[in-house]
Queue: 2 jobs
Job 1
Amino acid sequence: MKVPHPIPYQGSKRNLAPAIMRYFPNDIETLHEPFAGSAAIAIATACQSLAHNFVLNDLNKPLIDLWREIINHPCRISSDYAELWNAQTGRERVYYDFVRGKFNETKQPSYLLYLLARCVKAAVRYNSNGSFNQSPDNRRRGAHPETIKKHICGASNLLFGRTRLSAFNFKEIL
């Protein structure tokens, strides 16, 4: 099975996952990923059937809320993303700024997914007021909705019913 990656995320451990997993025991009851981000380690571990359950934690609560949607409501978040992606046509920069403003008001997970797919280097940046402020990568429109849907459904299939989510400081979760 090809490892699904629904969230583009700078600093993702997806390329390091095979090397990291070489140090894992063969049968893990619960894998804790205290800095989940793109959940690359959990997803890769689930693909290899190395763990039964998962705990995904990240201090970025909107990101954890996005994971909650991906895992529990893959069709809904995929559909919401497709709607946003299609609505940008012909006004990509203005639309990105509009969605960024809506995300900063509401913290809606689909807005964050769209922003991550479109922002420069998939890098999450918040200002001192807690507002997402990363610029768009004007060279691309973000992943096609069918590609995102395939990755979202793949991740959901691997993690549904087996994952707890939290948005704590790593010291609290460990």
Job 2
Amino acid sequence: MSEAMMNAGKVGPMTLVDALVRVGVNFASGVPDSILEPFIAELLDRADIDHQIAACEGSAVGLAAGQAMATGRPCCVFMQNSGLPNALNPLLSMFSPTVYDIPLIMVIGWRGEPGTIDEPQHMVMGGHTLKILELLGIKPLVVKAETDPDSIDAYLTETVRAGKSATLLVSKGAVGARKQFVSEPQISRDIFSKSVDRLKTIDAIMKSLPTNSVVFSGTGYTAREVMLFDSEMGERSHVHIPCVGGMGFSSSFAIGASSANPERDIYCLDGDGAFLMQGLSNTVAPLRDIRFKHIVLNNGCHNSVGGFPTCTHAADLVQIAEGMGYTWAYRIDDEDLLKKALREVAARKTPAFLEIRCGLQSFGKLPRPNRPLVDYKAGYLKRA
């Protein structure tokens, strides 16, 4: 544990984890969030809490429900507030006092908190977060850096004792700044025995795009990497639609556009975490005559929110894609095969799926959208 991490205001990651342990929590699951990075890193370092990264927020709630029912102990689910709607169904149908009446403790990173400046999609969700929790019948404790740790203990103790669900709504910076922990990298740098350099991968993909194609890019680094490439490329023949919110839904977004424009080459550049979260819900079998190309950049982790692991290293994404109805599905982990595979993808006239196992290389400081997102939509319609 770093000194910076220990001294980040009154509330640090150890404070939160210790408070959970004191009320009986020994299981936690969730989806990584940038605000909660130090807290999640602390969970990973602790032997007194079983910790599991989930594919999506609803799955984390389901895992916690099973654990709580089997053990009689409260469990913890963590997430970014943008993912809270993904958990509403199991929250209402499993944990509700009128159903199984299972108490739950949620730790939620509050992006877009009113009074702060954040990305547009986060400001929308940030303004609705308290209303959603109110609808769930949960009165949260807002945790800031100056929050008295005793108030966290008191809130959790009182709530758990009453058999109710609790939520710690964590403000940005409350548990330390990003990447101030000194644990070894959150995942192994050698997840795959072979992988392709990520920088070369993005460069090769963008240069392989057919004229007048459309690129839907997933939430996280992928969208910003495409923006960087476009800014350096200058004149380009493709249209870019960054999916800045709705993690996991970029492929649905792209398939919807592709089914409306079946003769146009439409790509989705996805991450493995996003594909696991929602991409598996797509069905492409009925859409045989669309030029949809789904490329998953699989680095085995949630790279933009701390590098915490996904479980894709144990999943056969190509076999999954074939079962979903893609007419061509392939995996590469060899740089020598990259350009050839991308040429094959570009030539396909029916749904194609390419998994590229890539490294964790970074482009450095990545851009964010510098114009209203509706301008991207206008660009798409103009080039349709």
